[in-house]
Fold these 4 entries.
Entry 1:
Amino acid sequence: MSEPIWNKFLTDRDKAVFEASGYGARGGFGKRPALLVIDVNYAFCGDKPEPILESIKKWRNSCGDESWVGVAAIKTLIDKSHEKGLPVIYTTGVRRDDNWDSGSWSWKNNRGNEAPRVQQSNVDGNQIVDEIAPAPQDIVILKQKPSGFFGTNMASYLTLLGCDSVIVTGTTTSGCVRATVLDAFSLNYRVAIAEEGCFDRSQASHAINLCDMNAKYADVVKTDEVLDYMDSLSDDLFELPSGKH
């Protein structure tokens, strides 16, 4: 078995502490999961696969090539969820045209007033990438802060669906994914993170945040294991939205 992605960033002391302290126990999957797809939009992926330092010239929040590796993994989970009739819930951002509601986001980035779009194509950065565009039965939640739960209907929708657990994918691992995971954990959902389905603009932040979440808040598991788990579930667990008028 290969070593966890975060091991190369840990000191020997760190590894000894995690081993001795009891963190990192397996929490296990729930019985009624929803798949969460956090902020997989053009602002974070760019409009095409390209090296991150090229992509961020146009899309300041882009995670570059690794975004599209993540998108491919997420698509397999979405396809399986649709096949099994499991809820798929997307989040993406929303802003006023004048960017007034950016609020605290503008305090920590000196490019914060840039509109998230490419002028040549006029693609809105908050649009979920076409490769995993929501299906009619899927749910899309608009948010303005990192967590998919903060100021949104996420928790009430999970209650309506009768979910006891979430499988989290998306970006960024250290930001919106982590914030969503912590809120889900705080609400006593069982949380799994599909490792290949998460990405970040910083390789170190990606790995260390996976490490920390796996230690305390969630199970970081391979996408193939999540697919096998989904296959084990009944096909009739949920009554999903019809998507019809």
Note: The chain has one domain: 29-231.
Entry 2:
Amino acid sequence: MVSGKYSALSGAIAREQSMANITANLANVNTAGYRKTSVSFESLLKGTQQTAEAKGINYSRIKGNFSDFTPGPMTQTGNPLDMAINSDGFFKLQGPEGTLYTRRGDFSLDEKGNLQTSNGLPVLNEANAPINIPDTITNQISVNSLGEISVMARDGGQSVIGRVGVVTINDTSKLKREADTTFSLQEGGQETVMVEPMLTIGSLETSNVNMTEQMTLMISSLRTFETYHKVLKSYSDLGQKQDELGSLA
């Protein structure tokens, strides 16, 4: 009976973790560039792993948590510094501890003319250097689909002063989720600069979270959790009955 109790408990814990994951996705349904996370389950049912590691108990647990990099829909903003990537790829940022990657392109300028994210992280160019746009105002800036940033001179001419760095990652499973919508690249991952990234300027890629899908998953997980909870209560009731029977002698 103890084996069944722990099996039900492991299942309940796994479903609780799944609901926490779904809650995080729903909380970011309106976050630009957010990539939803998903979980996969596994059970130890038979073989040497089940007998050696699980000690005969049929555990159910979370096998892994991974990010879904399926592109999200785009929304037009009209802001000349908002950018969306029309293919696979990531913008490069300078994080506190190294290079970060994101699909979120709602950029702006700080008081010194540095291009930055909404959280104040510097946006990098192809050479991994911050992008600075001096002595100008937003309506004098234009960005083309290749990420080239141009400013208008006083004589009406335009000059390219930088290019936003956009890269592809050879294995997105090597991307580790960091704060907000950023990722760091783990060992074994490699970036490649995109020569023609095909950006849509004045638009943002929104979250790839499907609210209907996530709500369906939450209801399913909640019902499964409640089932495990009922099983645990049944085991508890059986234990009380056993104690009562044992005290009759």
Note: The chain has three helices and 17 strands.
Entry 3:
Amino acid sequence: MLSPVNIAIVEDNAATRKRLVRHVEATGRFCVVSASATLSEARSALHQNPPDILLVDLGLPDGDGCMLIAEQAKANPELPIMVISVFGDEDRVIRAIQAGARGYILKDEDREAIGATLQQLLDGGSPISPSIARHLIRQFSQTRSCGKAVQEPLSARELEVLNLAAKGFTYQEVADLLEVSINTVSSHTKQIYAKLAVNSRSQAVFEAARLGLVNMRTSE
């Protein structure tokens, strides 16, 4: 039997916090070890009970959630951190990723989606809501420059994986669509990260959009 994975939640809205706790624990795979309402509460809770995964809202009453993300990413670079927010605008997403978040999903995700994204984080992925990915790709397509070149060209298959990732598909979905194993997708993803000099799927999407490497004709 697999050991439970400890989750820490930082969310100021009491009703949303309770819902997240309920949804996370309903998966049967994850256990909430702390659920904090403020930045100060979160710092204390994380010190006392270090989690395996950290879920963070950005709009906290005593500070910006990006502050906590940056602190925790510096203290423990291996800690998977994901933002769960009602806001999906470009500025907030970019600041969160730059601070160290590995994923960014919107609060309207259902229980099954929460469980799937947590598992994806645990597997080394970087889940991002498709609507956010589409928005960012459109924004970056309008302002991208050629100031930074890819150190080594991406292969045709790597570009396929990258385009599917930009559309919000999970590792398993990409594997199914390309008719390859999930390990093959993971291997291609690692090569993409290395060539783009990034550390997560979401950063890869941002950089690929800036460089014009992804298909901009996404559906609504």
Note: The two ends are 41 Å apart (CA to CA).
Entry 4:
Amino acid sequence: MTPPVLYSFRRCPYAMRARMALWVAGVTVELREVKLAAKPPALLAASPKGTVPVMVLDDGADGGSVIDQSLDIMRWALGQSDPEGWLAGEDAALIAANDGPFKHHLDRAKYPGRYEEDGITDHRAAALALLAPLETRLAEAPYLCGERRGLTDIALFPFIRQFAAIDPAWFAAQPLPRLQAWLPGLLAADLFAAVMPKFAPWKEGDPPVLFGP
């Protein structure tokens, strides 16, 4: 059986969470690392939007069945196998707040001056305010949806990692003790290390790179 093809970029938070779900589900893929400045034609043929991750389930002559949203890839993988019960730990509202307003402010906090002025002068503060519900949630349990990591933790984790990395000393000084413990716990997990090795950008004709547990 031909493994799915996954177009990915190591540091992209959307691709990161998809890789983590595929790995924990035990799904092996043919990994095609993408250089975002030189996107391969095969990626654009599979998904004209040209963002990663993109997964092609059947890389046949007809182009195959394509999943080009990271959350859909996560759910597809966990639908194959969900050994840690991640699907039970899905909070749609928290994920929507992360992927919507938090990501909006994160991008502008990371790259000041790149975006047109939208009336908000302190995007770092705006993003920080959106983390308060997570801190409250973590007062009730070690993970966002209970006693074990789940889909919501992994869906949000790469973005909070980026936010904390903008200014680690500043982030460490914020009144978020539970979130500040949650983040390094996920960073230190074997799962995160497993999905973060570096690969050369893929080009047509390269031998397959199999990626999975």
Note: The mean pLDDT is 92.
